[in-house]
Amino acid sequence: MNWNWEVVSDFMPRFWDGVLLTLQALVLGSLLAFTLGLVWAIAQRSARAWIRVPVTAVTEFVRNTPLLVQLFFLFYVVPEWGPSMSPLATGVIGLGLHYSTYTAEVYRAGIDGVPRGQWEAATALSLPPTRTWGAVILPQAIRRVVPVLGNYVIAMLKDSPLIAIIGALEMLGEARAYGAETFRFLEPITVVGIAFIVIAYPASLLIRALERRLVR
Amino acid sequence: MTWALWESYMLPGVWITVQVTVYSAALAAAVAFVVGVARTSRLWIVRFLSGAYFEIFRGASALVFMFWLFFALPLALGWQLVPMWAGVLALGLTYGAYGSEVVRGALAAVSPAQREAGIALSFTRWQRLRRIELPQAWPEMVPPFNNLAIELLKGTALVSVISVADMTFAANLIRFTTNDSAPIYTLLLLMYFVLAFAITRGMRLVERKAKAGIGQAPPPRRGLFAGLSRRTSATDPVTGAATPGGAR
């Protein structure tokens, strides 16, 4: 055992840079996942088969294949046809897209939980579909699923080190780069590993508290 | 992509992926049952330790843990794990923690009258667990275990990062040699999807058998894709938390 505190303090400035990038990826990825997931959830309920079937098939496929390979696909294949993106942008799109297929299921459960009478009332008032969704169904559905969405933010946090593999310098990426320069891997990786637990545990306590509040 | 590349890189890679999945699933199942049962223990210290294990590994990132086992641990201890076993250990311990929540939840869902009947017949705690509680909790566990197994399969792609030559690693090698990334990664994604589908089909058989074993009706037949998508469990495979709308 050759733990050296000086290495830890030497790594700290880069660690904070990494934390910043992790949080950036997490916030942007979550926003994308929440928005896209809602789009998928509504599209999967569409009466038109040509919308419903492809969306269901694509979300199935994305959910059942590894995020890492999807990141490789976005990073190496997409630039052949279209714009080439920075590792962070690729990571945000990858995380957001992958987790949107999970949040779609969460929204679906929330929408299924809205009582039938609410749909019927909206029909009786002859509300247009936009108002039915925007003013009646979604406000009730989303309230119930906020804690579950929060759980997926934590899950996304734990998957965020994957973007280090395509070259984004988030926490693990910084630790890897630091290790490659100085041949000290023990301290940086241990610090990063503990950092994940330190961030994730209070966050999950918070979500449990939120769950008791919002879901009876 | 030529046949030679396919035969020399991809096929061994598929076999490694299958091996890593099977080994880490076996480890995860063992951990899940031990920790899950320990979390229902009467002794507070056992409950505390198993609860701490669950919270720590639920909060930890599997990839960071794998890196730690692969890069940091050898420096600390002076001996090194074979890359594949570092991967299996990291995946097994992490997914075992998620699985322990499934086991705990299913044991808690067994009707209290069953437990009381065991006490009335003066079964020991171990007999009660083995003869009464686990057999009835088992069918409840199968659907969430299916979801976890698919998450685990997806997680095995991570071992390519610590230089285990699985499918993803092979695909990267082929990309380096042929510089032709679109067909390779598309094929790779399809192969993972097929494996996930195979797992779901297998677990469906297990579920049918488990339900028949305690005299319940088999699960309803579903469409081609339905088995992959509908989360029929009360425990979320990714977050390990209770999901609303899950069947209990």
Provide key terms for this protein.
heterodimer; A: 216 residues; mainly alpha; MetI-like fold; 82% helix; B: 248 residues; 0% strand; globular
| Share of residues in strands of chain A | under 5%
* CATH architecture name of chain A: Orthogonal Bundle
Helix content of chain A: over 70%
Helix content of chain B: over 70%
The structural domain count of chain A equals 1
Polypeptide structure, described:
The complex is a heterodimer of chains A (216) and B (248). With 216 residues, chain A is mainly α. Helix content of chain A is 82%, strand content 0%. The model of chain A has no long low-confidence stretch (mean pLDDT 91). With 248 residues, chain B is mainly alpha-helical. Chain B has one domain: MetI-like (MetI-like fold). The radius of gyration of chain B is 20 Å and the shape is globular. The chains are: A mainly alpha (216), B mainly alpha (248). At the A-B interface, helix 2, helix 3, helix 4, helix 6 and helix 7 of A face helix 2, helix 3, helix 6, helix 7 and helix 8 of B.
Task: Describe the structure concisely for a colleague.
Helix content of chain A is 82%, strand content 0%. Chain A is mainly alpha-helical and 216 residues long.
Q: Helix and strand layout, with pairings?
A:
The complex is a heterodimer of chains A (about 220) and B (about 250).
Chain A (H helix, E strand, L loop, with lengths): L4 H40 L4 H15 L3 H15 L5 H26 L3 H9 L4 H31 L11 H12 L3 H29 L2
Chain B lengths: L2 H36 L5 H16 L2 H16 L5 H27 L2 H9 L4 H31 L11 H12 L2 H33 L12 H4 L19
Helix pairs in contact in B: 1-4, 1-7, 2-4, 3-4, 4-6, 5-6, 6-8, 7-8
